[in-house]
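Shipment paperwork, digital attachment
Item: protein structure file
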Amino acid sequence: MVNPGQGREYSGQAAHPPGTDWLPPQPIPEQLWGEHWQFVALIATDLELGLLQRPIPIQGIAQTSLPSQLGLDPSLSIPGVIINGGSRAMRLAQWLQQRQPLHLQVILAELNGLILAAGFKERYLLATFDDSEATAAAQIFAERKTKAAKGLHFFVWCS
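Attachment content:
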């Protein structure tokens, strides 16, 4: 799960220090590309139970960032992204863990993209898309993230 205040008390504000410029997005290394990805949503209670009751080898969620701790409605749809990494899933997971993900951002422009903000000011281009279905899903992801879920969203990779 990705939360802008990960590891600290969640304030609802981005963890990026004010006045610091993000670097231009860099593509993730080709050897880490997953087989496919998609925008998804999980009900807050299902997401929280999945995080707390299933053994997940690599995860980054502070207890204070769980939906119940943020006062979110248990039936709220929490937006997220799932990447099927196939045989590259563990390498992708290790790469992501080293980068210390902060949040995902959707860019809707001439070429739409999914950006991962990480570390102090790094950004990585996870995917690009131009079809109407992905664009509509990206708009829903961004709206749910910023309006209903108070910035909370998740990012899962699997094999």
